[in-house]
Structure formats: structure tokens, C-alpha cells
Amino acid sequence: RGALREIGESLDPDTTGPFRMWVDRTFVIHGSGVVATGTIQRGTIAIDDSVQVQPRNLTARVRGLHHHDAATTTVHAGQRAAINLTGVGIDDIERGSLLSSPGTSLSTKRLVIDTRAARGFDEIPPRGGFHLHTGTADRTATVRRVTDTAMVVALDAAVPAVIGDRVIIRE
Questions:
Q1: Tally of CB atoms within 10 A around 66
Q2: Which of 8, 43, 97, 142 is most buried per CB count within 10 Å?
Q3: 105-129: per-residue pLDDT in tens?
Q4: What residues does 51 pair with on adjacent strands?
Q5: What are the tens digits of pLDDT across the range 68-85?
């Protein structure tokens, strides 16, 4: 346990980059509004900050923040957070949505990805139907290999993406 604690304490979350949090759950609190929960991937956010909700490209304002069941004024990368939002409804945000600093992410239904097969998997077929996972999003996808390592992925629904994001493709 001590070794694991040391490793965990040595990891520095990226608190300086633009804010990003993949949503894993949403709900409504009567009198407060929509709450989105997730683990903050990057950056810091505070009450009254604006966030972009992808893939719908909406803007919301942070009304309140909770970390480990306690109200707080800021949360940062590596922390679990519950973010109370104004300006969006419960139908505007769901598991797989991305909350990010405004202007730092876009959503798309088509990606070009650099592939590396996982251990125990000989080769990714040159085409076919798959699932694409990124953050907490899961989309149905068709893929077409264009080079030995590059594939074009067409998705059934838009997914938030930034160059360098990691994805998992599975059958």
C-alpha cells in the first residue's frame, strides 16, 4: 500500500491546461438544476466559470461545485467532481458528454486515427463495424484502413475530440 501511495502522490495532474471533464452521470436537484459528475481530466474550474458542453456545442455556467460530498469553490485535474450547471437542461447533457473550457474542443462524426493493436490482438481488420470509446463516450463506428497505421472512423453520432485524444476501437 505504501508503494502505491508513493506512486499516486508522485503523479502531477495537469491543472494548468484547458479544463476537461468527461461526464459519467447526470441528474437534477430540485431548486438547483442539472448536475454532471465525472473525473476532471485536465485543468481547474471555479464557480461562475463558463464551460462548453460537447457534443451539443452549448455554453453553461458553473453554479456550484462539490468534491467528496462537500461544497467547494474550485476543483482541479484528478479530482472527482459534481458540477451544478445553469444554461442547460437534463436532455442537453448525458454520459459521454464533455465539459471543457470554451473554444477548446469540437465534436465530429468522422475521425482519422493512428492505430496500434493491443497485446493479444494480431491485427485490426481493414474494415467493418466496431465501437469507439473515448472518455466516457461509446459510439457505433465503421472503420476503413487508409495506411498501415491510419484509419478513417465514421461514427453514428458526434463525439467530442481534440488532436491527441486516445480512443479504443473494439468489435
A1: 16
A2: 97
A3: 999 999 999 887 766 666 677 677 8
A4: 60
A5: 999 999 999 999 999 999
Give the mean pLDDT of 57-78: 96
3-state DSSP call for residue 8?
Answer: helix
Alpha helix ranges (H) inside the chain: 2-10
B/e letters for 122-141, b = 16+ CB within 10 Å, e = fewer, are: eebeeeeebebbbbbbbbeb
Q: Indicate the SS3 state at residue 90.
A: helix
Pair 71, 35: CB distance under 8 Å = no
What CA dihedral angle connects 161, 163, 166 and 168, to 10 degrees? 60
CA–CA dist 87, 59 (Å, integer): 7
- Cα distances (Å, whole numbers) of residue 165 to 26, 82, 159, 160: 23, 23, 11, 10
- Which grid cell sits at 24? 459519467
- Count of CB atoms situated within 10 Å of the CB of 37: 16
Q: Give 159's DSSP letter.
A: E
Q: Write down the pTM of the prediction.
A: 0.86
**Alpha carbons 49 and 94: distance in angstroms, whole number:** 20
